[in-house]
User: What shape does this take?
Amino acid sequence: MKKAASPKLLAVSYNKIAYVCPSIGFAYFPVSTPIFTTFFLLTTRRLLPACHSLLPIYLCPMTDEHFMQLALKEAQRAFDEGEVPVGAIITINEKIIARGYNQVEKLNDCTAHAEIIALTSAFNFLGNKYLPDATVYITVEPCLMCTGALYWSKVARIVWGAADEKNGHKHITDPHFPFHPKTIIENGLLKDQCGQLMKDFFKEKR
Ligand SMILES: [Zn+2]
Assistant: This one.
């Protein structure tokens, strides 16, 4: 399983200590390094009443698969609303900053694709017209319009699931690569699940 690109967060796997108190319940506080965590737990546990405890919490870095699963949830929302089931998630440093699903029918707008909705949401959230640190997860290969929007957004990385031979950009642009030269492109992640949702949708429509 491939880990999401975030060198800063991948370098460590510690995160917090939970302080469990019978009257207040849980309290969390961040820790700096695994060595400090061990030292802190060994020295502090003895000072606490027996009914209190400290637990180290090790958080694993989020994976691409995790975010694609969330993009699939967005696609399922589109499916449930009778829209072509495409979903998108945008992250920076493994934190979700925007999400979107296809809303062409609902908004009566043929440009309301999942990627466009997620990108607009990300620009608004950051107050920035470019997303040079962002990874965009899309369940299906982006169309030519969304590829253009992703180009102008200057995103760091794009990961998509299933290929879209009918409406994807590749049948128009192949063999040329229409993305920003600095953008890393990966595809095929959870492609069976992403593609199956599309197949189920169009099977129901027929
Ligand atoms: Zn599109």
In short: Confidence is low (pLDDT under 50) at residues 5-13. Residues 113, 115, 142-143, 145-146 surround zinc ion (CB under 6 Å). DSSP finds eight helices and eight strands in the chain.
